[in-house]
Amino acid sequence: MKSLLEVFFTSLGGAVVVYYGVKLLLVTKMLYPKMWFPLPKSFFSSMGEWAVVTGASEGIGREYAFALAEQGMNVVIMSRTKATLEQLAKDIGEATSRMVKVLVADFTEDKVFSDIEEQLKDLNIGVLVNNVGMLPSNIPKRFLEDTDLDQTITRVINCNVKTMAKMCKTLLPGMENRGKGVIINVSSGIACIPFPMYSLYAASKIFVERFSQGLQAEYKEKGMIIQAVTPFGVSTRMMGYQATDMVTLSPRDFVKSSLQYLRAGDRTYGSICHMFLGWLIRSIPRKILYADSVLNGLQEYVEKKQAKTRSSSTLSIA
Question: For site-directed labelling of 92, which of 28, 54, 203, 249 has its Cα 20 to 30 A away?
Answer without folding.
Answer: 249
